[in-house]
Amino acid sequence: MKIYPLLGDAAHPGTAGNFSVLNAGWCYTSAIKLTAPDGGWTLPAQGLVIVVEADWSDLNKTHLVTATLVDEDRNCVNLRNESKLVPAVIKAAVNVPSTPGAPNATPGRGHLIFSLGAGSIYLAHAPCRLTWRVTVGAVEEALSFWVNVPAPPVEVG
């Protein structure tokens, strides 16, 4: 089993078992300061795609995928769900199909797409380094990115 997480500004399913990712592969983003009473920061929208490649013996089976967003201390980051904060843990199942027309023993690939809207991730502080930790069974992969704070406005005069 192999896992390939991919991060972009947005992700959408395609028409033939594929997907599209807008501005894929970035490694940093800028935080947005919240003006709510408790303050904090949030992030722009992001699309997380998780590609799961399975060996022949694991094809056409359901595999549980867990994606957890953690900070540099491995503490779980929170998602804003209406008026409350919940841990940024996403659990979903993926079925990895066999590759049509391929010979026996050919691995297959399946994928999951998660769209996180602007403002859905809550951060207590910034700048910081965040990591999506993705597990499928005993296999784990990580995808990290840096969160900048916006530059202060330039004053002229």
Would you give an account of this structure?
With 157 residues, the protein is mainly β. The protein has a single domain, classed as Immunoglobulin-like, CATH 2.60.40. It has no helices and 15 strands. The protein is elongated and about 70 Å long. The relative contact order is 0.29.
What key attributes describe this structure?
elongated; mainly beta; 0% helix; five-stranded mixed β-sheet; single chain
Nutshell version of this structure?
By secondary structure, the protein is mainly β. Helix content is 0%, strand content 55%. The protein has a single domain, classed as Immunoglobulin-like, CATH 2.60.40.
In the CATH scheme, the class would be: Mainly Beta
Average predicted local confidence, pLDDT: 93
Please tell me the CATH architecture by its name.
Answer: Sandwich
Range of helix content: under 10%
Unreliable stretches (pLDDT < 50, length at least 5) are none
Query: Total strand count, please?
Result: 15
Spatial gap, N to C terminus? 60 Å
The largest sheet, given as strand count, sense and whether it forms a barrel, is: 5 strands, mixed
Percent of residues in beta strands: over 45%
Secondary structure tally, helices: 0
CA radius of gyration = 18 Å
Based on secondary structure, the structural category is mainly beta
Strand order of the largest sheet: 4-15-14-8-11
* CATH topology descriptor: Immunoglobulin-like
General form? elongated
| H/E element order | EEEEEEEEEEEEEEE
Q: How many structurally independent domains?
A: 1
